[in-house]
Amino acid sequence: MNQIGDVILTSRRAAGMTQEDLAEQLGITQAALSRYENNLREPDSEILERMSRALDVSVPFLTHAFRLQGAIAADAHMRRQKTTKASDWKLAEAKLNLYRMRAAFLLQRVPMTPQNHVPTFDPDDTTPADAARILRAQWKMPIGAVRNLTRWVESAGVIVVEQDFGTHRMDGLSQWASDYPIIMLNSALPADRKRMTLAHELGHLVLHNTYIDADMEVQANEFAAELLMPAHIIESEFRNLTPAKLLAMKQVWGVSMQALYDRAYRMGKVSTDDRQRFYRSLNARGWKVNEPGSEKIPPETPELARSIGEMLISKAGLSREEAAALIGHRVAANETVFLSPEKRLRAV
């Protein structure tokens, strides 16, 4: 039996709907929907059509055998504050699951050949810093600061998606349960924090594909720090770290002043007392929450997913509706990740 329940459950949660909400739209009981979601019963063709309309997923997407590709619902790595509402992070996780399933559904039919690949390591054998150094070498990244980290990550076939999470307490999340991992970022983040979050989530993909440990967040942070601020390159700059110098370094390295100072501290270049004075100074200036200079860091826009959609239309000759169907959508206008917004003529 096809595990359709996983697809229904994920699609419903990603739409922000309760079982009661969806059951009402389908004209069935909550108990009946529960049986569908738990794979105790398969919906007939009429119910599938109603689900397709209610959830904006095509019938072929609903009935696709995702389990064969490891693309069913799974827990995500997540960079969030402990005070994040459960409802917020569960909704974001469901959306990530759905994006990953859409990518698997599409890329089974339209495979891509990335220029690079995401290597994986066991943290018991390879330190996070060494993993970052190996990845930089494998990807042939230039020495020094990373320009457009998003493009580098996408070059390895990682689908990067930006979404407004509706909260500042959650930065990003990632998942690797199929050939093409997904990273979802909070679009409301400033550019420096977004880059650090992207590097952090890449660290999870590299280090925690199968490995689960209480130190995962620390390890992902160590990976991100070495990836964006290689120790042997940045070490000589960690002298006389005044606010003015940190602000100038922020523009070069594309990370926050706090990330730079924390890197200096963990490399033994500043003392604990120095670090405490630094954070007191940030608080006094109001910079702990709103650092200056972030607006001067060049924004990085994900392009891989949209380029795949545009290829389907411009090179394969598909209509927007046909391209959306390959992504598992019922309505093309609702696809905003793989397809550009439809241009409409306006009367003047």
Fraction of residues in helices? 40-55%
Structural class computed from helices and strand pairing: mainly alpha
- Kindly report how far apart the N and C termini lie: 56 Å
Strands in their spatial order, largest beta sheet: 1-3-4-2
Give me the CATH fold name of one domain: Arc Repressor Mutant, subunit A
Taking Cα atoms only, what radius of gyration do you get, to the nearest Å? 22 Å
Describe the structure.
The protein has 348 residues and is mostly helical. Among the domains are: 4-64, Orthogonal Bundle (434 Repressor (Amino-terminal Domain)), CATH 1.10.260; 128-296, Orthogonal Bundle (Arc Repressor Mutant, subunit A), CATH 1.10.10. The protein is built from 16 helices and 4 strands. The chain has a 4-stranded mixed beta sheet, sandwiched between helices. Strand 3 (170-175) and strand 4 form a beta hairpin. The protein is elongated and about 70 Å long. The termini are far apart. Mean pLDDT is 90; it is low at 68-73.
Question: What's the short story on this structure?
Answer:
By secondary structure, the protein is mainly α.
List its salient traits.
mainly alpha; 434 Repressor (Amino-terminal Domain); four-stranded mixed sheet; Arc Repressor Mutant, subunit A; 348 residues
List the helices and strands and how they pair.
Layout: H1 4-14, H2 19-26, H3 30-37, H4 45-55, H5 59-62, E1 77-80, H6 86-107, H7 128-138, H8 149-154, E2 159-163, E3 170-175, E4 182-186, H9 191-207, H10 216-228, H11 231-234, H12 243-253, H13 257-266, H14 272-285, H15 304-314, H16 320-326
Parallel strand pairs: 2-4
Antiparallel strand pairs: 1-3, 3-4
Helix pairs in contact: 1-6, 2-3, 7-10, 9-10, 13-14
